[in-house]
Amino acid sequence: MNAVLKQATETLKQYFGYEQFRQGQEWIISNVLDGKPTLGVMPTGGGKSICYQIPALLLPGITIVISPLISLMKDQVDALETAGIPAAYINSSLTYREAEKRMEAAANGAYKLLYLAPERLDSPEFFHTLKKLNISLFAVDEAHCISQWGHDFRPSYLRIARLINELPSRPVTLALTATATPSVRDDIRQSLSIFQENEYVAGFQRSNLSFQVVRGADKLQYLQHYIGTHKSESGIIYAATRKEVDQLHASLIKKGVRAGKYHGGLSDGERADQQDGFIKDNLSVMVATNAFGMGIDKSNVRFVLHYQLPKNMEGYYQEAGRAGRDGLESECILLYSPYDLQVQRFLIEKSISDTQRIRQETEKLQSMKDYCFVENCLQQYIQQYFGESGAAPCGKCSNCHDTREKVNITREAQMILSCMVRMERKFGKTVISQVLAGSANKKISSFGFHKLSTYGIMKDKPAKQIGHLIDYLTSEQFIGITGTQYPVLYVTEKGKDVLQGRQEIYKKAEKLSAAKKNDTKNSALFEELRKLRKEIADTAKVPPFVIFSDSTLLDMCTALPS
Ligand code: ADP
Ligand code: MG
Ligand code: ZN
Questions:
Q1: How high is the pLDDT of residue 325?
Q2: Angle, nearest 10°, between helix axes 313-320 and 378-385?
Q3: pLDDT tens digit string along 384-399?
Q4: Residue with the nearest Cα to atom 16 of ligand 1?
Q5: How far is the CA of 188 from the centre of ligand 1 (A)?
Q6: Which of 105, 205, 249, 502 is the most exposed place for a label (fewest CB within 10 A)?
């Protein structure tokens, strides 16, 4: 260990009582002490604060910390002062006079760390006084707020780069975030002039978390059963709206659960009380909107249950990641319903005016939905989403535990994909499913789809089940989605390979399919299916799509627009 690092480790022990740095902290801190602008990406709870707090103690002058989490600033500063580190914060909770006093103290060298809300940088006057400080380190916490691709863009963050450039002596910059998507990382690096070699991305696997997706359940029943069997445990239930929080909270209280609630509609005092009750374990469960949890460091949260689909993976992983900070086994459960997906779509369209941003948010929502439909490891999916490749299956998520046998669904996939080709890529899941199921719906015939050769080729399945297959094919990128007004499906390159018999698809068998044994219509179709399978087996070398006995299909597939 070199001398600088040794000193850093001693400082860690002395002020924070920790024996050693975590993976990543060491790398980031050495880099910063070397004077290199650095980006550190670590999951929530990974220990990002230490990365600027230790250098702040070792460098001369003051460290500025930009953070959007006002509620967190006070806690952090209190904790630092308890540890004997002089620190202060300036945000909108202070009067003008108080803020001014703190700036004067800062100029006189009273603090090692000064936390600032980003909005401060909007004031030219403040900008000017900041320039008078002897700043050694400029730490940008929650740095994804710089990026329009992030899930929490703050225009004030864009001023940071200008401020740093205008400072009389250039401080070291350290950007920190839990959001690791490549586009967000690019934005941060570009905005703050950080070389790629000075970027550290920590492993995103949280090996003590088991992820679960529950589809098609009665959500309220599921929740009550779950809480009933996890009575002694601390957990968070996230719901999408205040109203939903109120309702769920009331239903749990009625069942005798010590539940608290938290959302933006409560007064500051009420919120503080509820949060305090939860942290002190007087309340076992917190029902909350996503307003809850930022900066809450409760280590023994055993489960985080999402009652509704979050709007993107970044938000989901941040919220779910509040489980198991103590390293003990914990569960992250997501209840999926198609209705909730519609609500999120609606919210995107209603709350955003810029069409490019609508597209971005819609894509993110789609990735969130895909998470609910993939069949491979969920932990792996998350890691891949955040740009980490080569992760092994976790062995404990609901997908890893799903022991249903995989069946070959290439034929069904070909039917779906060929039908989409016929319909010339203008439609969404519902219409495509209806055409395949041979629906008598007037809308279908008004488009002339009842005349297509693919009309009704899947009439052995209800349109809903076909819809599930489409969702699965989408999550595996055989089908792509465009369109901002409403989702429009198209066959991807990967999908074309399937059509041409170059790739087979396997899917876990649906629980439903074997159920209706006495249905004569079904058994006739099973027979038909067996025949078709045999035909394919007999003509093993012939691409499977010949089962449509449609010679033009091949031409159509090769002529697909790319
Ligand atoms: P983040 O900002 O990445 O979400 P925090 O900085 O809030 O995480 O740290 C999360 C928790 O980990 C805190 O309780 C912190 O004290 C603890 N922690 C940080 N570094 C270490 C370390 N080296 N050893 C033990 N605990 C640590
Ligand atoms: Mg943090
Ligand atoms: Zn897994």
A1: 84
A2: 120
A3: 887 777 788 999 999 9
A4: 47
A5: 22
A6: 502
Contact call for residues 234 and 284 (beta carbons, < 8 A): yes
Are β-strands 488-491 and 479-482 bridged in parallel, bridged antiparallel, or unpaired?
Answer: antiparallel
**CA-wise closest residue to 380 among 207, 135, 137, 144:** 207
Asked whether 37 and 164 are in contact (CB, 8 A), the reply is: no
Tell how far the Cα of 316 is from the centroid of ligand 2, in angstroms: 16
Atom number, ligand 1, closest to the C-alpha of residue 44:
4
Strands across the sheet containing 113-116:
87-90, 113-116, 62-66, 135-140, 172-177, 38-41, 199-201
Distance from Cα 184 to the centre of ligand 3, integer Å? 26
Distance 365 CA to ligand 3 centre (A): 21
**Residue with CA closest to ligand 1 atom 2:** 48
Question: What b/e string do you get for 294-307 counting C-beta neighbours within 10 Å, with b at 16 or more?
Answer: bbbebeebbbbbbb
Local structure of 331: helix, strand or coil = strand
Using alpha carbons, list the distances in angstroms from residue 49 to 72, 73, 134. Answer: 12, 11, 21
Long-range contacts of residues 541-545, Cβ cutoff 8 Å, at least 24 apart:
543/500, 543/501, 544/410, 544/411, 544/414, 544/501, 545/414, 545/418, 545/499, 545/500, 545/501
Ligand 1 residue neighbourhood (C-beta within 6 Å) = 18, 21-22, 25, 42, 44-50, 297
Q: Which of 49, 176, 298 should be mutated for ligand 1, with most atoms under 8 A from CB? A: 49
CA of 217 to the centre of ligand 1 (A): 36
Helices of type H across 428-562: 429-437, 442-446, 463-475, 493-499, 520-538, 552-558
The answer to whether the beta carbons of residues 439 and 377 sit under 8 Å apart is no
Separation between Cα atoms, residue 128 and residue 121, nearest integer Å:
10
Nearest CA to ligand 1 atom 27: 47
Per-residue pLDDT at 249 = 97
- Say whether pLDDT at 533 is over 90: no
Q: What's the CA gap between 402 and 305, in Å, rounded?
A: 19
Where is pLDDT greater, at 225 or 23?
A: 225
- C-beta neighbour count of 182 within 10 angstroms: 11
Per-residue pLDDT tens over the stretch 34-77 = 999 999 998 877 789 999 999 999 999 999 999 988 878 888 99
> Which residue has 């006079």 as its token pair?
97
Ligand nearest to the CA of 383: 3
In this structure, the number of other CB atoms found within 10 A of the CB of residue 557 comes to 22
**For residue 175, what is the DSSP state?**
E
Q: What percent of the chain has pLDDT over 90?
A: 57
Query: Alpha-carbon distance 87 to 77, whole Å?
Result: 6
